[in-house]
């Protein structure tokens, strides 16, 4: 068995690393984003961030994201969609309680990429006075967040924050967002600019080493481009991400990885073709959009989603305890070891 680090050809990149600007990289895989674009996966030799080189263009990102959004709705059974909403609500409650215990009471909250909005709804259950703003590029998501939760919704991305000229927030939430953004260095600086002094950034993002492993294995064993349907364009190294945050003036409140079942299967360290993701078949994004776009997605009433006995009790402490039981992580690992499925972070802006 080879060492667990990446091996590949040293290449001159087409675009500089978005954290450190280096032009030198290690090519570890080739990917195809739908039938839209082919790129290399390149690891920066200085900061270890793995990125697409070149990045997906904004136009291709919009098309691919739309297709992926429809594909997910198509492939997720309705009862599972509903369960995910409740799960996110519970996670929001657990997260807000963890802030409360640390003495934080955010009032102005901004969430990038809110999905169903149920995570922030859970946060507001614990902080009823919180005012929540959400930002997304998909119009359906914005409409749903306004209609279901009454959040203020803006169309945009964390790379483009001119929307909020004078506005500052106490908490910025970016769950499963950082792996999607083209310029991660800029996004971290933008978030710092959006926060009040002492404000918090909360994110989760995949552990890059596990997330990229299937592409790496496909490249090692098959020497063909792999299929990339969701636009993960950044694959973070635990040490590099921490440095990027601290260099932008953030200090660590919580930083850990969780869920080791994929690691136990060998993802992130075992050299095996079984762990490879599929070879690209150049699936057509436009065709999927044409076929699916006319159908209305299932919509859910909030009362139907949160209809479990426990939520009906309205007893905050009981609900909080129940949610904690469902979602506390027994094993918390140091992200710098690059083991674990997902990285959880809470960081505080100086002030
Ligand atoms: Zn770099």
Blueprint of the fold:
Layout: E1 9-12, E2 24-33, E3 37-44, E4 50-53, H1 58-75, H2 78-101, E5 108-112, H3 118-126, E6 131-136, H4 139-149, E7 152-155, E8 169-175, H5 184-194, E9 195-206, H6 208-222, E10 226-228, E11 234-235, H7 238-247, E12 250-258, H8 261-264, H9 285-292, H10 302-305, H11 309-312, H12 316-327, E13 342-349
Parallel strand pairs: 2-10, 5-6, 5-8, 6-7, 8-9
Antiparallel strand pairs: 1-2, 2-3, 3-4, 4-11, 9-13, 12-13
Helix pairs in contact: 1-9, 2-3, 2-12
Bound molecules: zinc ion.
What does this structure look like?
With 351 residues, the protein is an alpha/beta fold. It has one domain (9-349): Rossmann fold, CATH 3.40.50.150. The protein contains twelve helices and 13 strands. It has helices spanning 58-75, 78-101, 118-126, 139-149, 184-194, 208-222, 238-247, 261-264, 285-292, 302-305, 309-312, 316-327, and strands at 9-12, 24-33, 37-44, 50-53, 108-112, 131-136, 152-155, 169-175, 195-206, 226-228, 234-235, 250-258, 342-349. The chain has a seven-stranded mixed sheet, with helices on both faces. Strands 1, 2, 3, 4, 10 and 11 form a six-stranded mixed sheet that branches. Helix 3 (118-126) links the parallel strand 5 (108-112) and strand 6 (131-136). It is globular, with a radius of gyration of 20 Å. The termini are far apart. Bound molecules: zinc ion (ZN).
């Amino acid at each position: 068995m080879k060492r667990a680090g990446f091996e590949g050809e040293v290449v001159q990149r087409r675009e500089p690393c978005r954290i450190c600007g280096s032009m030198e990289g290690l090519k570890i895989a080739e990917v195809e984003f739908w039938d839209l674009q082919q790129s290399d996966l390149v690891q920066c030799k200085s900061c270890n961030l793995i990125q697409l080189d070149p990045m997906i263009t904004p136009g291709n990102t919009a098309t691919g994201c739309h297709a992926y959004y429809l594909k997910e709705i198509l492939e997720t059974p309705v009862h599972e969609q509903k369960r995910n909403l409740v799960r996110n609500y519970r996670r929001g409650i657990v997260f807000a309680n963890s802030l409360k215990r640390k003495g934080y009471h955010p009032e102005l909250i901004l969430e990038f990429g809110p999905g169903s909005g149920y995570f922030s709804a859970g946060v507001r259950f614990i902080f009823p006075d919180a005012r929540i703003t959400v930002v997304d590029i998909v119009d359906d998501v914005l409409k749903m967040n306004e209609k279901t939760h009454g959040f203020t919704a803006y169309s945009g991305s964390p790379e483009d924050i001119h929307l909020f000229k004078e506005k500052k927030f106490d908490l910025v939430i970016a769950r499963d967002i950082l792996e999607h953004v083209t310029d991660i260095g800029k996004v971290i600086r933008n978030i710092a600019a959006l926060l009040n002094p002492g404000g918090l950034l909360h994110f989760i993002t995949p552990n890059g080493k596990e997330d990229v492993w299937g592409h790496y294995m496909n490249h090692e064993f098959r020497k063909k481009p792999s299929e990339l349907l969701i636009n993960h364009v950044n694959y973070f190294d635990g040490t590099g991400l921490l440095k990027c945050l601290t260099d932008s003036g953030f200090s660590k409140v919580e930083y850990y990885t969780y869920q080791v079942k994929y690691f136990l299967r060998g993802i992130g360290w075992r050299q095996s073709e079984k762990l490879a993701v599929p070879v690209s078949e150049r699936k057509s994004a436009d065709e999927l959009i044409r076929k699916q776009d006319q159908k209305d997605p299932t919509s859910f009433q909030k009362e139907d989603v949160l209809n479990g006995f426990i939520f009906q009790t309205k007893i905050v402490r009981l609900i909080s305890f129940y949610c904690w039981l469902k979602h506390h992580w027994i094993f918390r690992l140091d992200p710098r070891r690059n083991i674990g499925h997902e990285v959880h972070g809470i960081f505080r802006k100086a002030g």
